[in-house]
Inverse folding.
């Protein structure tokens, strides 16, 4: 799927209603920057954003993410009865392990479905879905 | 053994798998009546109640206690997906043994298939209903489906341990054989490994026949003390040990996609029961998908981590094997109304009573019920015995 075709799908997706802890994450993504929470006490990164460090209950700060990762696991969705996704099928849903050590779900795009492979190097592709929400897609790393 | 040892004395099923004339409340009630009739108790004896309410069926414990008019001294609304009923057994056994109540009823009812069709496993939660609140907002934009979550666990297991689609298929084939012995089972015709592999892919690498059915159905069971059980119509089945644990709720938060919380609660339940996995005569395990079975077997210690594929190929879980599994035909073939955990308990009790008919496991004295709720998230293991702890 091309980026242009991908853009057309954005508004139909089930977008987030950010809670307090996630406002900055989704807004930053809309502004073209992927950010992660890191604990100021124990130094652990976490995803998804929370109102505490889930490891030690400490305070967190925002850190720019490298935008690089690898594919931890994936599936190809062949059937989704929800209207927003019917016309996208089949498509890849994966779990990306970021360089910082955290994992997130996303779609793996700009990759033939039969070339998906656990461990493949990925880079983030941020697309603005609404004024307050950007979505981080992932695609094979360039070079 | 003590006078207040917790036992299961009554079991009941509503009708399944396709029952358009019953709604969720009807399923709860029919199962409740049959469980009371099974053991010969009056409804007035019930002083404890557990129910895993859901937003789909609007059957939270408080509402249901009102509807059924149960004046409880102890209540448990634990609702953690399909394994809720195994958690209920653990909690109710502790309450009974502590003297908080004497007779606990657990009910479940679902009209999932007749009211909502087959969407549960292959739809994106919340899609189409506006913006998504809560932690599932970090998954909802990507169009994942229930089957996809399990597919990603299967993919990772294949990557790390070389597990094959054929090995997963073997699980579905074995369970289907037992479904052939259950006149109520949703699908009864025998299938082969090739049939599974040739069924269409739903979410790679899971095929249609790697996925459970979607049904209507309900169940109930009644627990009390070993002393009280003496006056009742059925031989008691003892709760030897039970334990539950959670590693995550949403699949993307699963710490290790090849290891579930059964690695924690399985050994804990066995330790409390004073038995080992090899002592178990029949395994009733949550088969939402074939991969669910594989992971739970490994994690409970029936085989080593990564050996699940080879373990299922030995035939040990098949009819006539050493530890027959899902002897009612399981969720893969018989019945899965959304939360199947109560059927695991009821089938284990049926086997321990020796009432299994053609599917009876010879000399059945120890059974395990292991439920998985959510997305391989909340797991509970219950060890049941024909005799109490020695």
């Amino acid at each position: 799927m091309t980026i242009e075709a991908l853009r057309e799908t954005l508004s139909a997706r089930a977008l987030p209603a950010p809670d307090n802890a996630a406002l900055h994450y989704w807004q930053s993504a809309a502004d073209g920057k992927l950010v992660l929470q890191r604990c100021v006490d124990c130094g652990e990164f976490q995803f998804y954003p929370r109102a505490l460090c889930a490891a030690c209950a400490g305070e967190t700060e925002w850190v720019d993410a490298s935008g690089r990762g690898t594919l931890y696991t994936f599936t190809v969705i062949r059937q989704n009865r929800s209207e927003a996704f019917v016309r996208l099928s089949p498509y890849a849903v994966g779990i990306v392990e970021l360089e910082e050590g955290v994992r997130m779900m996303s779609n793996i795009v700009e990759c033939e479905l039969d070339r998906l492979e656990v461990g493949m190097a990925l880079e983030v592709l941020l697309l603005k879905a609404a004024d307050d929400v950007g979505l981080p897609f992932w695609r094979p790393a360039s070079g | 053994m003590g006078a207040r040892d917790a036992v299961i004395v009554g079991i009941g099923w509503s009708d399944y798998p396709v029952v358009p004339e019953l709604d969720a409340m009807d399923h709860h009630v029919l199962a409740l009546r049959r469980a009371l009739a099974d053991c010969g108790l009056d409804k007035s004896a019930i002083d404890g109640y557990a129910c895993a309410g859901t937003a789909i069926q609007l059957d939270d414990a408080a509402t249901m206690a009102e509807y059924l008019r149960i004046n409880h001294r102890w209540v448990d609304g634990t609702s953690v997906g399909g394994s809720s009923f195994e958690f209920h057994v653990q909690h109710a056994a502790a309450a009974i043994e502590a003297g908080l109540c004497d007779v606990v009823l657990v009910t479940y009812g679902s009209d999932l298939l007749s009211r909502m069709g087959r969407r549960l496993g292959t739809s994106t939660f919340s899609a189409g209903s506006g913006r998504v609140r809560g932690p599932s907002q970090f998954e909802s934009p990507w169009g994942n489906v229930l089957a996809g979550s399990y597919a990603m666990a299967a993919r990772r297991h294949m990557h790390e341990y070389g597990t094959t689609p054929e090995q997963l298929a073997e699980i579905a084939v074995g369970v289907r054989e037992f479904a052939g012995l259950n006149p109520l089972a949703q699908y009864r015709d025998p299938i082969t490994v090739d049939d599974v592999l040739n069924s269409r892919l739903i979410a790679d690498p899971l095929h249609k026949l790697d996925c459970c059915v979607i049904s209507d159905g309900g169940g109930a069971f009644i627990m009390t003390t070993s002393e009280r059980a003496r006056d009742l119509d059925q031989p008691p089945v003892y709760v030897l040990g039970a334990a539950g644990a959670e590693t995550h709720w949403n699949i993307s938060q699963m710490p290790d996609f090849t290891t579930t919380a059964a690695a924690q609660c399985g050994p804990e339940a066995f330790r409390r029961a004073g038995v080992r996995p090899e002592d178990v005569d029949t395994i009733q395990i949550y088969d939402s998908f074939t991969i669910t079975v594989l992971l739970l077997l490994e994690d409970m210690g029936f085989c080593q981590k990564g050996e699940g594929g080879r373990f299922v190929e030995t035939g040990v879980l098949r009819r006539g094997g050493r530890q027959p599994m899902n002897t009612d035909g399981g969720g893969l073939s018989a019945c899965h109304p959304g939360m199947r955990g109560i059927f695991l308990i009821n089938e284990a009790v049926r086997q321990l009573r020796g009432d299994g008919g053609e599917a009876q496991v010879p000399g059945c004295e120890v059974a395990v019920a292991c439920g998985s709720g959510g997305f391989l998230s909340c797991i509970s293991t219950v060890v049941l015995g024909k005799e109490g702890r020695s």
Notes: The interface with chain B takes residues 13-19, 22, 47-48, 72-85, 88, 91, 93-95, 103-107, 118-119, 129, 135 of chain A (CB under 8 Å).
